[in-house]
Each structure stands twice: as structure tokens, then as C-alpha cells.
Specification:
The chain has helices spanning 3-15, 87-96, 113-119, 134-138, 167-182, 187-212, 226-233, 236-249, 251-259, 287-290, 293-296, 321-328, 422-446, and strands at 22-26, 35-41, 75-81, 123-128, 142-146, 156-160, 218-224, 263-267, 273-274, 282-283, 300-303, 310-317, 349-365, 368-383, 387-394, 399-406, 410-414. With 447 residues, it is α/β, with parallel strands linked by helices. It has two domains: 1-30 and 348-447, Immunoglobulins (Immunoglobulin-like, Sandwich), CATH 2.60.40; 31-328, Alkaline Phosphatase, subunit A, CATH 3.40.720. Helix 1 packs antiparallel against helix 13 (422-446) and helix 6 (187-212) packs antiparallel against helix 7. Bound molecules: zinc ion.
């Protein structure tokens, strides 16, 4: 081993903290979900099926609207748009909570929802027909994805890091079933079959997780691609019918999510626009289409036992999805780049406490201790909304006390106080000595 490497390792050792843990406390029998399905429908504009909207062509003519009954149940955010209606970028916004995200940022440390789920013991799984790219695939423990965008000659691959037992086999089995869905079909029927395969595959993966790994929490990301492809290639009259097909094929996902207490996030990367009524081709990302509401508006419908139902009013952005997903999963929003805000859907509040050392934390209401825990990261979930608490925290040499009123989740980072810590100064001094000595040795070797 080179001397330089030894020095780097020495420095890392002296900086390393003692192992820090996470403690989670659930109060009042809160129905925390066992995981989540993030279901992204590529190119599904909410203009084409939300009751609030009428879709228009670029020339101002009114377009056809899909009749749906399954794609709106849950907490439905009425007004939410992508900042940038391009597949790769919009997927990056969804998973980072950052309105200026791109595919590169997805690969940065602690940039995505997957980094946070992984840190809290979740498995990340994905079934993606579109919207995956190298950094997105790298975030997954296992992903089944389409290597091309072709519905006529699809090419599916599996990439696995540390897949839970049996999941590779389920994905492989479903990969081989795709031709059975597509054979002897053409046009819109074939496009919908491609989506149905994605839905059924995702359902099978979720089912295998629930059955074979019942205590393992997971985040399953799904992208179905044929509504986008249909908008581009088949035209306006098939586009809205593809949405109706999705509505009738979607039930297996809805069913497993509601029966097995899995939070379901139904959304899209971007919408779709058409120049005229009956246009044979649509688009969303080119200059002609990119600023149209039909390209920008996306659906967001959340179904989870710990959220309220109904229509959520107000203006939101795609970057709000990631913080909202973390909140519903009772995970802290420590996304490094996020500028999105949590949409308050949860029917209780959670308190997240993070510190650089172990703390004894207690929650008090009217001089009565409600709960307590000890760790460097603590999550208290199931706290009643609009109630007041006193949060007390104590470590070896520090104390903290704050009165809080909870109208939504709260996050606390307990940082060291300003008192001089001679042990830290000594540690830094020793590191500098090691670096200086190392540099001198390297110089001598070179000379
Ligand atoms: Zn797309």
C-alpha cells in the first residue's frame, strides 16, 4: 500500500464518529406504511383526466378527455406542474425534490429519496420502462428496466446490487412474460399491453416482498412508458383512450397498496401537447410544446392509511413530491439539494431529531411525559396535529429544551454548542501533524 493511502486512511479513522443509530417511536397506533410505491406514468398530463381541467390544443381547440374512475382516489393534489417537461430531468426532480435537478445530481451523495430510504433500512426496487438512467439505476438495489424505448422490439434488462432473496427470480420470470402480452397485438392495444405488463410486473414484485420479506420496508419505483409513446406516435385520439386503458388496468397496484398498507404515489414526469385536434403526433419537450399547460401539468394522487383523502388546493411543484413522500413514510427530509416543500397530507405529525452524538430525548405535554428515547437519530411519529409539546434533550455535556406547537412534521438538528472542546482541537492538531509528517516523507521519497 502506498504511503499516501495509509495517511488518508489514518485521517479517515481519526475523523470517524462512533457508530450512530436510529430509534423510531410510534405513538397512538399511527398507521405508518410498510413501504411505498412511486408510480410514474410517463407523459400523463393531468389536463386530460382531472375534473378541474379542459385540455386544449396549441391552436385553442378543445381536445378529448379520458373518463377515469380509479386514478383519482386518495389525496389528490389538483394544481401541480413540472418545472421542465423533459423525461430525464423531470424524473430527477421527482427523486431529489430539487426544481433545478438533472441526471448528474441524482448521483450525488444524499441527493435522493433513495439515499434516505436506504439509510433507514429500506430496500429500493424499480420496474422502469422509461425514465431510468445510469445514476437512477445505481440508486436501486435491483431494477428491471427497458434498454430501449421500443414497444415493437422491447429489450429488458435486470441490474442488481443486493437484491432481497427471490426478487431477481420474480423479475426474470416477468421479463420472459413480456412477449405473451404483446404478441398478435398492434396499435393502441399493443401500447396498453406494454403498460399492463409494467403494472402486473410491479404488482408481482410488491407481492413477493410482502410475502417473503414481511418486515422489510421497501420503496418500489415504477414507470410505465406507453402513454408517452402513444402521445408521440399514435396521436391525440389514441392518447386519451390509452389513459382510459390505464385506468382499467391499474387496479392490481391499487389493491396491493391498500390491502398491505403500502403508500401509493401516483404521478407523472410531464404531460403531452398536440398542435391541433386529431393531431397525428404530440410532444412536450420541444420549444413549440414546452410551455403549454398540457405539457406541464402532472397528476399527484396519494393513497395511504396515514393520509387524509380529498382534493388538495393550492399551487404545487413537482419538487414537492420527494419531501411529501418522505413525510408520509415518516422519514426525515435530509435531501441535500431539495427546494420542494412537504405537502401536508398526513393525519398526524412526526418529530425528527438528529445529532452528532447520543441524546436522551423526552416529549412532554402539560408536565406529563408522553414518550422518550435515546439515540443520535430519533423519530417520534403519531403525534396529534395542532397539539403543543415540550421537547427536552440531554447528552453527556449538553442540554436542549424547546416548546413546540405541531401543525406539521418538525425537524431538529442538535448541533454542538459553542463551548470549546479541547479534545476536538487536540484531534485536529494530531491530524495536521500526521498530514505534515506524511507530506515530508512523500517529499523525501520523491527526492
Ligand atoms: Zn417522459
Amino acid at each position: 500500500m502506498q504511503l499516501k493511502n495509509i495517511i488518508i486512511i489514518l485521517i479517515l479513522f481519526s475523523l470517524a464518529d462512533t457508530a450512530l443509530g436510529v430509534s423510531e417511536v410510534t405513538l397512538n397506533n399511527a398507521q405508518r406504511p410498510n413501504g411505498a410505491i412511486l408510480f410514474i406514468v410517463d407523459g400523463l398530463g393531468s389536463s386530460y383526466y382531472y375534473p378541474e381541467f379542459t385540455p386544449y390544443a396549441l391552436d385553442g381547440s378543445v381536445l378529448s378527455k379520458a373518463a377515469t374512475s380509479n386514478l383519482t382516489s386518495g389525496a389528490r393534489v389538483a394544481d401541480i406542474e413540472t418545472p421542465y417537461p423533459v423525461t430525464g430531468i423531470a424524473h430527477s426532480v421527482i427523486v431529489t425534490g430539487y426544481s433545478q435537478a438533472n441526471e448528474e445530481i441524482v448521483g450525488y451523495p444524499d441527493a435522493t429519496i433513495y439515499d434516505i430510504t436506504r439509510d433507514h433500512g429500506f430496500i429500493n426496487l424499480a420496474v422502469m420502462e422509461k425514465g431510468d438512467f445510469r445514476n437512477m439505476r445505481e440508486e436501486q438495489d435491483i431494477i428491471l428496466f427497458a434498454e430501449n424505448n421500443s414497444i415493437d422490439e422491447p429489450l429488458m434488462s435486470i441490474q442488481a446490487k443486493k437484491a432481497p432473496t427471490g426478487i431477481y427470480e420474480v423479475m426474470y420470470d416477468w421479463k420472459t412474460r413480456l412477449p405473451l402480452y404483446l404478441d398478435n397485438k398492434s396499435g393502441r392495444e399493443k401500447y396498453s399491453a406494454y403498460n399492463k405488463w409494467g403494472i402486473d410486473t410491479a404488482r408481482a414484485v410488491a407481492e413477493a416482498m410482502v410475502k417473503n420479506h414481511p418486515s422489510q420496508r421497501f420503496l418500489l419505483t415504477v414507470n410505465v412508458g406507453a402513454i408517452d409513446s402513444g402521445g408521440h406516435n399514435l396521436g391525440e385520439d389514441d392518447y386519451y383512450k390509452l389513459i382510459e386503458d390505464l385506468d382499467s388496468d391499474f387496479y392490481p397496484i391499487y389493491e396491493i397498496a391498500s390491502e398491505k398498507n403500502i403508500a401509493l404515489f401516483f404521478t407523472a414526469d410531464h404531460g403531452m401537447s398536440f398542435a391541433v385536434k386529431n393531431a397525428r403526433r404530440g410532444g412536450h419537450s420541444s420549444e413549440k410544446y414546452a410551455s403549454a399547460h398540457e405539457s406541464l401539468r402532472i397528476p399527484l394522487v396519494v393513497l395511504s392509511r396515514n393520509t387524509n383523502q380529498g382534493v388538495i388546493k393550492g399551487e404545487y411543484g413537482q419538487e414537492d413530491i420527494a419531501p411529501t413522500l418522505l413525510s408520509v413514510l415518516d422519514l426525515p427530509n435530509s435531501l441535500q439539494y431539495a427546494d420542494g416543500k412537504t405537502i401536508n397530507l398526513k393525519n398526524y405529525a412526526s418529530i425528527f431529531i438528529k445529532a452528532d452524538t447520543k441524546y436522551s430525548v423526552s416529549l412532554w405535554s402539560d408536565n406529563r411525559k408522553v414518550s422518550e428515547g435515546t439515540d443520535s437519530e430519533l423519530i417520534f411519529s403519531g403525534l396529534p396535529l395542532n397539539a403543543s409539546f415540550t421537547l427536552k434533550a440531554a447528552s453527556e455535556d449538553r442540554t436542549f429544551e424547546e416548546r413546540i406547537s405541531l401543525d406539521s412534521d418538525r425537524q431538529f438538528i442538535l448541533s454542538p454548542n459553542k463551548r470549546t472542546n479541547y479534545r476536538e482541537i487536540l484531534a485536529i492538531f494530531l491530524i495536521l501533524v500526521v498530514i505534515a509528517a506524511g507530506l515530508m516523507i512523500i517529499k523525501r521519497i520523491k527526492d
